[in-house]
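1st attempt posting a full record on here, be nice pls
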Amino acid sequence: MTKQISLPNILKTPPFLQKVQWVTDPVGYMEKAAQQYPDIFTARIIGFGDTVVFVNHPQAIQEILTNDRKKFAAVAEVNKIVEPLVGNHSVFLLEGAQHKQRRQLVMPGFHGERMRAYGQLISNLSEKVFSQVPQNLPFSARNTMQEISLQVILEAVFGMYEGERCQKLKHLLGSFLDDFWSPLTSSLFFFSFLQQDLGTWSPWGNFLRRRQQIDELIYAEIAERRQQPDRDRIDILSMLISARDEAGQPMTNEELRDELITLMIAGHETTATAMAWALYWIHQNPEVHEKLLQELDTLGDSPDPMSIFRLPYLTAVCNETLRITPVVMLTLPRVVQEPVELLKHRLEPGTVVVGCIYLTHQRQDLYPQPKQFQPERFLEQQFSPYEFLPFGGGVRRCIGEALAIFEMKLVLATILSHYQFALVDNRPERLQRRGFTLTPAKGIKIVITGERVHQKSLENMTTTSVPQ
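the predicted structure (as tokens):
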């Protein structure tokens, strides 16, 4: 007789309805579940097997993430939902020693001198893109931020600055992700029976053909770079091509492709969304906007990127943006390896567990008035990695976190110093599913109302114009 595994706080809604709501309205689904069971509940949703335990209590999240590979392990099988996008050699789908080794190869690309080298690039790109946006005409903040973040990731990851291949890849990636990230088309990844290639006109057939076009460009770039190695290049592709494992073997073309596509998809989409949300919250709260401008003005007209990065209030604004509207909903899933007790609930081996980032960030006991945008909370208190976790945690924490935060701060500082903005619609933006992430439903419509002169510049002009 098969032993019945007991699961904590099982939601009573029929599984099929849970799956539909999870795909179409994940925020509503999570908030309703947390009203019944505030700390831990069992969901019947798609993408993690039949059932998954959602945890949003910091102590329990800490236990899950710090016991990685012992009581709880990241098992590739439960991440298979992303394989059509990133391939089976992606760091998302590697386990154990292979996963650790791949992270060690990729991580140096997002730290130290390489990061400093990206600083001026990010500021220049921000100025270039926004200088081309017409004033007094509404535009989508998210789409414009995506243009910046896609170019940053192409230059940081590929070392691609210009040329036909760069433009093709940029165009294909943008349209590829836009077409397949709506709540409706996201269902292609969650319902495998929809993954039918019925020709170019069919959604899945279209997806496969676009993916092939992108792959052809990536493999062409890999082949060219293998033939013409350049030790002076600082991009991640060059670094990975020259990397060797413990046996002295280089990465295969397929491994390179999967890692590059993972970094591009995970790196530019999420950062663009976070930057757009930051613009929204800053302009929804005039006192935050004013305080931020005062801080930016202390740096003068041509601030050093590292000086911008260290600004405390800008850091608090970015953190509060990532708290109140996190781009990623969940930590990567873990699978229970041995019987364990979590929040007084016994979990058996094979149980899939996720830390719920969204619900943790909405906890009243951690963040009083959680629906209010209050950057000051990050100046007044230090939150643990299990209370504030916009980039996940444990050994699966986002590799590109440092670049994302650096880019977010530099882009915001650059454009807010140069332009005056106004929201087109003051009605609240809501979170909507975009593939595996959360995004602003209306894209955050904003308008440039004019150029901005720094307060210090005005003072200097006044001083120099007064007769002595």
